Sequence to fold (752 residues):
Amino acid sequence: MTIRTSVTGFPRIGENRELKKALEGYWTGSIQDQDLEQTGAQVRAGDLTFQKESRIDLISVNDFSFYDNMLDSALMLGAIPPRFSDFSHERDRYFAMARGSTAVRALEMTKWFNTNYHYLVPELSRSTLFSPHPETVLARYREASSLGIRFPKINLMGPLSFLRLSRDMDNRDPLDHLDRLIPVYVRILEEISQLDDVVHVQLDEPILVRDPDKPLLQVLPGVYDTLAQAGDNIRIIVATYFEHALEALPILAETGIWGMGLDLVHGPENLEAVSLLRGKKLLAGVVDGKNIWSADIDQALGILGKISRHLPKEDIIVSSSCSLVHVPYTVDNELPGPVTDRFSFAREKVREIALISSMFHNQPLTLEQEHLLVKSRRCLITRVDPEDSDPGCSGSRPFSERTSREHCFAQRIAVQKKELDLPLLPTTTIGSFPQTSEIRALRRDFKKGQISLSRYEAGIMEYIDQCVAFQEEAGLDVLVHGEPERNDMVEYFGEMLEGFYITANGWVQSYGSRCVKPPVIHGRVSRPGPMTVKWITHAQSRTSRPVKGMLTGPVTILNWSFVRNDRPAREVARQIALALQEEIRDLQTAGIRIIQVDEAAFKEGYPLRKADIPEYEEWAVENFKLAVSAADIKTQIHTHMCYSEFGDIIKTIQAMDADVITVEMSRSNNDLLQVFKETGYDKEIGPGVYDIHSPRVPSMEELSGQIRAILEVLPAEQVWINPDCGLKTRRWEEVRPALVNMVAAARMLRSG
Ligand code: GLN
Ligand code: ZN
Fold:
């Protein structure tokens, strides 16, 4: 049988988030180990069977995970940090590594390349003793075989990505572990080779799409020749995705691997080098695994046509560009309509792969495939939006094209200081206050149409009143309304703006059991009317202290949405910026003197390759500035970012020209703050003084210690006092005393 189609990986949380629910049930003790196991098996069986019925030849096994594949890899390789060695129950150990327990701290979690997926960072040290534990992998293969899957493809994390993405606790190069790690991979592959006449093994090496890493490229041929020799019947596929792999490709082409996966959507440069893969299989990633638009079938066929000038057709396997774990399950769970008609989620993408392959290989189409082809072609036509030809105009009102504020920072801050008349070391928060169950219920009931608009608004206003009253009482200097109307800082704006679509069930795994539902930007973005003015002005009417208006910035809205792919990202960001500009103007007219534009996801959007960074920085900064350019000299613009490492982006942050930036700093030592000083950063800064991720209430002494440490680095005139991030995940019982202590600490230091 010729192999013609492959899927890099499939979502695993379950069509109706069954796995999420089972996991959370297991953690709270409401279901048992075997129930969790059973849910996992059901989800896997459904997904495998679906792919089989959709005519996928190489179907992934071991893309499933109860939490994260990197964690699974660490366990498969025996890389268990010593603090987790004492668990008698495997599953307890597993979840302790993932989430921590009362006794041990979890592994660190971080973002998976430029996606919104988070993986657990394996910890290695001199004492790490790698050992092979392929039992789960073998079981998953047998499970797939028993479901009638002819070619289960075993997905494993490749050794080079595993090491590069791990942390070495002795601060050595994680690559130093390679010599001890490879024999363990070989042992695992030997076990795998016993499974069948031929076995396909996909080794994920996304690290190879990053900027060239010399030591890694040096060991690459040796590693893959060794692995390819682990069994005569093993066919090794090296999967790369999210970018081109032009440095690694020629090297891998000379090794004994069977095939290579290339992303031809996000790394079209790969096309230049496909001829080098002669004699190997190419898993041609022509269906976008990261975005949700229906595929352009003819364009994909065009790419495959080009490849077939260099490689024999039978060596070209049609594939997704990356794992489909980054998109929701199926469009079947959405309301039918002109927008959702253009969507393609994981199941639809699988069908597109099969269709493209049938057409490429001149096989007869099924009736269903013919329908899909007609529909896909029609989608492309309906996507042409006539309004798009008018790129600048946003609504009927004029807007400013100016991307800089009229006055320089020195002029602005002098006027603002006079206007706002704040004390030294002003205190504030990042925006949200606890999202209580009452507030959640209020929003839910309103959404379901169970309560009237006036009752809903009255409820929200009441909560705002409570927030304002508390902040006055606690003695904060700059107040917020508390964000009770927001379910999520991006979704809220997505709901208010034209050009966005909010899916009903478009859930995507973010980490573990956590799923997010990114809004979809499908058309030209514009603002039909004010989005936040009502809430902010209400809060302001309750106090004489300044209330900060609270908006999400253009770059963050873009980075946390599924973005249309028929327009450049910078243009979409610009449309969002113009909508925000109108909002800022309205807030200002309504008497709001401070406006915060959150850019929590600014850093996340950075391209994987250095060469592409300047362009991103250019349009990201430009659109942030375009949004806030509506602010006049008296209006103070704040921004907030949820991290502390600014070393490589400090110049860019400076260029954003916000009057005040609040950042996350309490968990890192103040060395990281140095960079603001060293680079001559001249704007005001609020380095978070306590960690909002923990329920612990910091004492006054602790907080004043933290502030003193900050003041050793920065002059008091430049410093604001605030928590690390928004308080929405905390409880009032924690927030109240923490903020009271924070204000007391600031006051103490103010008076010297
Ligand atoms: N203003 C938002 C809040 O306080 C910011 C959240 C964030 O930075 N992720 O919730
Ligand atoms: Zn934050």
